TrEMBL record:
Gene3D superfamilies, A to Z: 2-enoyl-CoA Hydratase, Chain A, domain 1
Signal peptide: 1-23
Name the UniProt record assigns to this protein: 2086_t:CDS:1
Region span, Disordered: 305-343
Extent of Basic residues compositional bias: 326-335
Length: 664
């Protein structure tokens, strides 16, 4: 039986890249000098944050002024050498490894809303802009990558994302008389504002402001309706409890420094209208970070610099510059002398902030629950499987994965044993995880069909070299033995693999496990998939396959009135890291290095700042139309419903609505 090789089963939430509580590796050598901006005032914003923390005597529950965060972030001067290195690295990723570089230039298909672009040319434009601070350039690079609306692909600066900005208020949208009304989901400062209508934001219609924000700033989907859903409040099942999803309410909970300090909201509460003004304040996402700095200098050294890069050790003060020097000749990588660990999910959001803005939810007692799912029985013989995630945690051993198979199979069997005739698959806010779990669910419910979508790499020169060099190297993502032909045969050679689409070589252990289980009773006509559009990565490997191949009905909730809404997002194919912060060995730098190609002129070098770079390295294709790239194919739901003031706070209210649409 084929073993579960980690390189084949990389979790999607390497996008959201580590599991909460795992250590984020930051290489440490001798401290580097912080590039303090020449215009910094005597008021050191980073020092002010430290002083407030020390005076409070606690790391918990602290909120820091917007002005201090802005001053701290803007402390560090722009350096043209860092820009040259960064742009060179990103261009090599998008030229050599990113699978959608060409498709990103094409106009969106009908139903999608995003800006097509030549990402290489856009990075070239950044080389000509004037900058005063490192923050300005880094935000331009961050925003440029997010314009792709591909959540597998990120330029995520650790330096400028350690805090979450909040105004202690979040919103939802309710459809009334065929028009959207923005309402207060929860106000942590003034509870009497809950469910008041938000008429205007800074004098502009609230729905217009939030729609513009979703269009420009949210990147979870190419569908603007899904992005609107995530700009607003959304609850998800997390560790057995429904609470605010960490990547929802993005209009009100911001990882990136807001453009200004205050916002004015005009509210209508009953027949009365009032105006409130809220300041942005910042909570640190990982309270232990407060121990890591005392001022701007130490903030840069411990949270911003990447000392594994020699360039970061010679940072200097710099004013505005558009100088386009040639990059320095590549230097041999220096050995890492010691490890420092950063004990937090780099994408995590302060748990106290989420808890304060989450409602109390009681959806009843499940008949069975697992790490990633819960199973419920409703009236009228309706079973509900809440598939919250395909991410099982840090233990990716054969035993852990087999236990996940067993738990999921038991959950569905429990529904069948309880007499469920209809099956609602609630996959809302499922950001993916292990592709093998998607394949398991696909085979569990449809054992006689192929569970996999075809995929391939973009065959650039360096990827061709990597595939040819990998041979039978089992530790490489480019090893053709990790894949099968679309009709589930082994590849005989790298040259055969180069000419083909392929699927993951993970089906034998699934089929062996299922051969010992009784089949489940449901047909495709007995099922419906419920999502808010955020069913991404390996989650979409289930929802899209069920819809396309098996004609399972889908219902999407939220979005815009009279506008079709996607039931899945970022089908991608596979996400990969430039440099895994956990140093587990499955990242591009380690992979290419193991193949002896790290000195290839087409390969990247270390970034000089501490940035997580992820990207789509494979693309998935439709099982019906094998030339249709799923990432760029608009797939609207069969049915479309909307939240109200009850269902937005209790997702179980949507289950009977979804089940009523099943016509078995």
């Amino acid at each position: 039986m084929k073993t579960f090789t980690l390189i084949t089963f990389i979790p999607f939430l390497l996008l959201l890249a580590t599991h909460r509580g795992e250590p984020l590796y930051i290489p440490k050598h001798k401290p580097s000098s912080a590039p303090i901006h020449s215009k910094i005032s005597q008021e050191d914003g980073c020092a002010n944050i430290h002083n407030k923390f020390k005076n409070a005597g606690t790391k918990e529950g602290l909120l820091f002024p917007f002005s201090d965060l802005k001053a701290c972030y803007e402390s560090f001067s722009f350096d043209n050498e860092r820009r040259i290195d960064t742009i060179d690295t990103m261009k090599k990723i998008f030229n050599g490894f990113y699978v959608f570089t060409d498709q990103a230039k094409e106009q969106p298909s009908q139903g999608y809303n995003y800006e097509s672009m030549d990402i290489i040319s856009e990075f070239d434009k950044l080389s000509q802009k004037e900058y005063a601070t490192d923050f300005e350039f880094t935000m331009d690079a961050t925003n440029l990558v997010t314009k792709l609306k591909d959540p597998h692909t990120l330029f995520f600066p650790i330096c400028y994302t350690r805090f979450i900005f909040t105004q202690k208020i979040i919103f939802y949208a309710k459809l009334e008389n065929e028009t959207h009304k923005v309402k207060v989901f929860k106000d942590g400062a003034e509870a009497e504002n809950n469910d008041c209508e938000v008429e205007k934001i800074d004098g502009v219609a609230a729905i217009d402001v939030i729609t513009e924000f979703a269009r420009d700033k949210v990147f979870v989907s190419k569908d603007l309706g899904v992005r609107l859903n995530m700009a607003l409040a959304a609850l998800s099942l997390q560790q057995g409890t429904y609470q605010l999803h960490p990547r929802s309410a993005q209009y009100n909970l911001r990882t990136i420094l807001p453009e200004k300090e205050t916002t004015t909201y005009q509210l209508k509460c009953g027949e009365n209208t009032k105006t409130i003004t809220r300041n942005w304040e910042a909570a640190i996402n990982n309270p232990d970070d407060l121990e890591k700095f005392t001022d701007a200098n130490s903030y840069w050294e411990n949270l911003c610099a990447n000392p594994s890069s020699s360039q970061s050790k010679s940072l200097k003060k710099s004013g505005r510059s558009t100088k386009s020097n040639k990059p320095n000749k590549p230097k041999k990588p220096k050995a890492k002398s010691s490890n420092a660990f950063y004990n937090a999910d780099p994408f995590g959001v302060n748990s106290e902030v989420l808890k304060e803005l989450s409602p109390s939810v009681d959806v009843g007692k499940p008949v069975f629950e697992t790490i990633t799912a819960q199973f419920y029985m409703l009236e009228n013989d309706v079973g509900v499987a809440v598939l919250a995630s395909y991410d099982i945690g840090p233990d990716l051993s054969d035993t852990a994965i087999t236990n996940s198979f067993r738990d999921l199979q038991t959950g569905f069997k429990t529904l069948a044993d309880n007499g469920a005739k209809k099956l609602v698959l609630d996959m809302s806010n499922n950001e993916g995880g292990l592709i093998i779990l998607a394949h398991f669910i696909n085979l569990l419910l449809f054992p006689d069909a192929s569970p996999s979508s075809p995929s391939n790499f973009r065959l650039t020169d360096i990827i061709k070299k990597a595939i040819e060099q990998a041979g039978d190297n089992n530790n490489s993502i480019f090893n053709f033995n990790g894949y099968l032909t679309v009709d589930e045969q082994n590849f005989n050679s790298a040259s055969e693999f180069l000419e083909s689409k392929f699927i993951e070589n993970d089906l034998s252990p699934i089929r062996q496990f299922l051969s010992e289980q009784e089949p489940l009773p449901w047909k495709s006509s007995d099922m419906i998939i419920l999502t808010n559009g955020l069913c991404g990565s390996s989650c979409s490997s289930t929802s899209l396959l069920f819809s396309e191949l098996h004609k399972v009905q889908t219902v999407a909730v939220g979005g815009f009135p009279n506008t079709p809404l996607s039931f899945s997002s970022f089908a991608g194919g596979q996400v990969y890291l430039l440099d895994d912060p956990l140093k587990r060995g499955f990242d591009l730098q380690n992979d290419i290095g193991s193949l002896g190609l790290n000195d290839d002129p087409e390969f990247t070098k270390d970034l000089s700042t501490n940035v997580m770079v992820t990207f789509s390295i494979r693309r998935a294709f439709s099982v019906i139309n094998n030339e249709e790239v799923l990432e760029y194919a608009f797939k609207p739901s069969t049915h479309h419903i909307f939240f109200d003031e009850k269902s937005i706070r209790d997702p179980s209210k949507l289950w009977p609505q979804a089940s009523s649409l099943i016509k078995s």
